[in-house]
Amino acid sequence: MSSGGLGMMNCGDCLKWLGMDASTSVITLLDDPADLVRLSGVSWSLCRFVIVNKFCKSLCSRFCPDTLNFLLVAEVSNTSKSAEVGFSSALEWESLEREHRAYALLCHLIVSPEGKRDCIHRAVCASSTDNYPDESNENTLESGDLVDQRPSYWSSGGQYDPGVPESLTYRLTANLCVMREIKIQPFKAFFQPDHPIYLAKFVRFRMDHSRLREGTDDYEEQQLASDDYYKWTYVSP
């Protein structure tokens, strides 16, 4: 028998030959979630080892430490596995598999160049607008200073008390988005004397999901846009 054939016969038993500690040290050197997914497909023992030790979750936390704050991974599915597996109950194994799939996909989206794009789908509404629609918050999504040969900016209706906050609401492109940065561009009014620059005294970001039913149209969503219709679970300093 050739040495190549012997290698193929024993490739699934690398855990046995290396041992748990050495295998862990080698696997933690991987920096691509695709490699972890491929590794879990080599054999049942490697699959179990990768999933139980949560290597995908660990790799994901290296690129995005905030994932360590996740409390639960939920997955919508119409089917449920019920077969028993040797080392754990079916329920526990399903939970581990679900977590493995979720973190593998999330990590891929974080490191993949194809996944880097604008997370904002559209502007929903603003707490006030001075001159709608010419000065609406739709303008904040424009990269240039002009739209249809007119200045592109959002302007609030204004308040007597400068401490009263204004808000802009946007819908994201997906239910799960990974944000690496948020860009804010103050507006330079080149059409006014001395070209003043308008910017906020402070900015706060709030994120989570809408309580509105599926299928709510754009107009209805704009009419219902208030704190009563949104569940804010993250508020920045």
TrEMBL record:
It comes from the Eukaryota. PANTHER family: F-BOX DOMAIN CONTAINING PROTEIN, EXPRESSED (PTHR39741), F-BOX DOMAIN-CONTAINING PROTEIN (PTHR39741:SF2). InterPro entries: At4g00755-like (IPR055336). This is Uncharacterized protein.
